[in-house]
Specification:
single chain, about 260 residues, alpha/beta, seven-stranded mixed sheet, two-stranded parallel sheet
Length: about 260
């Protein structure tokens, strides 16, 4: 996959990279990245010599039809792990178990602390469950990663990708061994997550928003729905006004006849 996918990606888009020396040549480590685009999970592994295992939503593996089978084959081929996100708690526990298993094999585990793609290019609050618990349970170092401009390559609704150079900044590993054995303390989990998000913010230069990206997406959907309803009401009011005006003009015309 590094040859068939990674090679063309690097040749066509020529991503620039800073901080490759911060990724260990061997041994377990967690790559904690911001999440701007579907392509993040391709560009980051493409620039590394080692395999990176991300967790992926189960729908990528279970969608029916030819396209679904090809998608499932691709994700299995690159070693991605399916996680059922239908139940928030179950999905979180599955992600944690998957991450621990990857790290226990001495491999690289990739995770997006925001939990979903940013809806507007800003950096959102990290979810404390997955990243922090995996880090404290395994003792693996956390390497903050910033994806730069990947959301501009193929914005939602655009079929053909834009050929441009995205960037990847890889920060220095963070050691959380001082919290060993405290992976069930919610205040510690929050502190670890916030520290990682702060490092990602410094690397990416993104504006930080202290709410979860999932909540932001709900707000965007609700705002769009409210705008649509307001537009519908405005059209209805205009149509009613036009009908009333036409009725008045008709009545006026009838009274003026001899």
């Amino acid at each position: 996959m590094k040859v068939s996918v990674g090679g063309p990606l690097k040749m066509i888009f020529r991503p620039w990279v800073e901080g490759l020396e911060n990724v260990p040549a061997e041994g377990p480590a967690i790559l904690a990245s911001n999440h701007l685009s579907f392509s993040d999970s391709f560009f980051l592994p493409a620039v590394l010599d080692r395999k990176v295992t991300f967790i992926a939503k189960a729908e990528y593996f279970t969608t029916p039809g030819v396209k679904g089978r090809l998608t499932a084959a691709f994700f299995k081929g690159v070693g991605q792990l399916p996680v059922d996100r239908s139940g928030a708690r179950g999905a979180g526990e599955a992600a944690i178990r998957s991450g621990i298993g990857v790290l226990e094999r001495g491999e690289l585990f990739g995770i997006y602390p925001e939990g979903t793609r940013s809806p507007d290019g800003r950096l959102y609050r990290g979810k404390p469950g997955g990243l922090a618990r995996v880090a404290l349970a395994t003792g693996a170092p956390v390497i903050p990663v910033a994806m730069i401009d990947t959301e501009k390559i193929q914005p939602p609704g655009q079929v053909m990708p834009k050929i441009m150079r995205p960037g990847i900044r890889i920060g220095r590993p963070l050691d959380f061994s001082r919290y060993h054995g405290m992976e069930h303390d919610r205040f510690v989990l929050r502190a670890v997550t916030d520290e990682v998000m702060y490092e990602i913010m410094k690397l990416s230069g993104q504006e930080y928003v202290d709410i979860y990206a999932t909540a932001a997406k709900r707000q965007i959907v609700e705002a769009a729905k409210a705008d649509k309803e307001a537009e519908k009401a405005a059209r209805a009011a205009l149509a009613q006004a036009e009908r009333e005006q036409a009725k008045k003009e008709k009545e006026k015309s009838g009274r003026s006849e001899p």
